[in-house]
Amino acid sequence: MDKKGLVFFFVMFFSVMAFGQHNLSENDEIINEYFEKKFQTFFEVEAYFEPFKFSNYDRHNLLEKSFKYGNEFGKIYAYNSIGKAQRNKSLYRESIENHDKALNISRKIKEIPAEITTLNLIGVVYRRQEKIRSALNYHQYALELLNNYEEDTENIMRNKSISQNSIGNIYLTLKQYKLALDKFEEAIVTQRKLSDKRGLAINYQNMGLAYQNLGDINAALENYNLSLKYNKEIKSELGKAICHNSISNILIMRGEYLKAFDVIKEVRSIVDGMDNSYYSGIFYNTYGYCQVKLLRLKEAEKSIKKALQVGIKYGLPKIFNKSYEYLSEIYLLQENYKKAYMFYKKSIEGERKTFNDRNVLYVNNLINKYDNEVKNNKIKGLAKENEITKLKLTRNRNVLVIALVSIALFGVLLYAIYGQRLLNDEKKILMLKQEALQSQMNPHFVFNALNSIKLYIIKNEQKNAVFYLNKFSKLIRSILESSKTKEVSLSEELKTMKLYMSIENMRFSNEINYIEKVDEAINLDKVKIPPLILQPFLENAIWHGLSSKRGDKKVSLKVTKCSDDYFQIEIEDNGVGRYQAFKIKTNKSLKRKSIGIELTKQRLRNFSDSFQNNYTLEYSDLIKKNGDPKGTRVTLKIPLS
After folding, report:
1. Which residues, other chains included, contact 168 with Cβ-Cβ below 8 Å and sequence gap of 6+?
2. Distance of alpha carbon 47 from the chain centroid
3. Under a CB-based contact definition with an 8 Å cutoff, are residues 274 and 240 in contact?
4. Is 68 helix (H, G, I), strand (E, B) or coil?
5. Residues facing residue 571 across a β-bridge
6. Which of 10-19, 143-152, 557-566 is predicted with the least confidence, judged by mean pLDDT?
7. Residues 512, 501: contact at Cβ < 8 Å?
8. Highest mean pLDDT range out of 128-132, 145-149, 311-315, 503-507?
9. Residue 399, CB-side half-sphere exposure with 13 Å CA sphere
10. Bridge partners of 573?
């Protein structure tokens, strides 16, 4: 290199460095100003950072300073921003890890707006991987929080439209196109109120895809063009590329192959310049298929294999299944029937694995049950609350009347009558509350718990009854929190069972030693089971195994991970054994009909329908060396996938 070339090199090098340093300082200043402000909600934080485009350095800089200053909102925003960047690079595992950190902080500080935003972001990551059940669960929970949120601000409306849009996309994946259209139309109504052009662009694109799959290509093209119009107005290069890809597919369906190729070719430079593997894979599949239809088979094979490489590398079934289908068509045209069959078989197997009857059944059941349950519970809840209010008003009026009459006329006699009426009213209120709650919790469990309270009332042990009722109220609160969904975390279930055991133990003068052992390999917050599924087994251990035994009484609950597909729960007691318990039960004059285990088996069967594997339930009689019974073990294996 000559002297002039060397000088030019150094001038350019330091110019670039100065330019980079300028941007770095500018973003540092924005981040530093953030810590000087006092934001009240996470939505305000999002609005503050929205105009600025962050680099990877900026995201980690914000995270580091948020830890330094103890700013929880900053941590949440930084973790979510890092997660979104990783999602766009198809680094899904890393993305979920960062969003989970944001979610934990949101829940710790009880910031509902941050939790809603993060739940939607996690749902999108699972949707990209076509993990339908997980995606739908996160978006449904976000929507539930939104529906219960008191404020009806623009941010709430915007997040609600995001949830609706994502659920619509899940329905698209499951080929529930009419359901998808309903969700997209709900989202569009919200976005029009907000004048949200970006949201309108996304939803018109999605509506076009739904119409395309329903066979109405004219309606599909109309919606794609509307989406393209809004994307041009907001100058979204990514949106423009997506629309051109969709319009090209419609033109292929019409047989206008050359026009389709011209449309898709127009955005190739945009796609190549993006750092987004997901849309790059989708683009090159369509680009290659246009070349197939134009019989440019060598070029087509190269393009589609490029898409296939992206799909396999990042685990994107939607992309590599379509690549297999297109490669099969190429080899068929080349009369290479062996390769054509091989790729066709891969396409069919991949599609079957991604979309199966279990997924469709799960979603349809979830939709119907969720909608019906919400409506029925609201109606029942309002009716019972109204009746309780009327009864309380009547009781209060009676209190006043009886008090006046007792003072003026009969004193002690009328006071006793008043006390009896008060007790009757309290009992009625309690019964009505039980009925109102019954729509949200397991009736069998509540019945057994109330039986414990009833014994104290019968024995007229008022102090014990009051103490027991206080314990029971905590248990009811725990059950209500669990009953908001059809599934709860194993962590919540174990807490509820510990409370249940403490209540039952009171009736045994705290003679029962209850022990829990949990395998560290299990994440109790992520593993899901039906609520109150363990209670009948603990009840049997107490009432059939230990109630007739003298001396040391012990119940242990052990949770272990068997494999990637199953985890196992063992409930073991050192009671009299099943044979002796059966003899004792047979000799009793009053036989108690137990339906809890059968109900539990049915609930486990319904729960397992959502998985590829089924549950197993096994009873084992524990025997001493001399042949005497030393207890019973119940082993319950529950699927993880």
Report:
1. 179, 180, 181, 182, 183, 184, 187, 203, 206, 210
2. 26
3. no
4. helix
5. 557, 634
6. 10-19
7. yes
8. 311-315
9. 11
10. 555, 632
Label residue 376 by pLDDT band (50, 70, 90): low
Residue 312, CA distances (Å) to 86, 279, 281, 418 in order: 17, 14, 10, 77
List the one residue out of 206, 113, 95 whose CA is nearest residue 159.
113
Question: Is 464:456 a contact under the CB 8 Å cutoff?
Answer: yes
Which of 289, 292, 247 is CA-nearest to residue 266?
247
Token reading at 212: 């395309």
Q: Where do the H-state alpha helices sit in 483-527?
A: 490-506
Instruction: Classify each residue of 596-613 as buried b or exposed e, where b means 16 or more C-beta atoms within 10 Å of its C-beta.
Output: beebbeebbeebbebbee
Give Cβ neighbours of residue 539 (< 8 Å, ≥ 6 apart): 448, 504, 596
Q: Does domain 461-639 have CATH number 3.30.565.10?
A: yes
d(Cα 356, Cα 352) in Å, to the nearest integer?
A: 6
Residues 487 and 531 sit within 8 Å (Cβ to Cβ)? yes
Q: Which two tokens stand for residue 153?
A: 């601000």
State the pLDDT at residue 219: 93
Domain ranges in the chain are 241-355, 461-639
- pLDDT for the residue numbered 6: 47
Dihedral of alpha carbons 324, 328, 334, 338, sign: positive
The three-state secondary structure class of 327 is helix
CATH fold label, 241-355: 1.25.40
**pLDDT tens, 544-571?**
888 778 888 899 999 999 888 889 999 9
The answer to whether residues 140 and 365 touch, using CB atoms and an 8 Å cutoff, is no
Structure tokens at 482: 């669990």
Q: pTM, whole model, 2 decimals?
A: 0.47
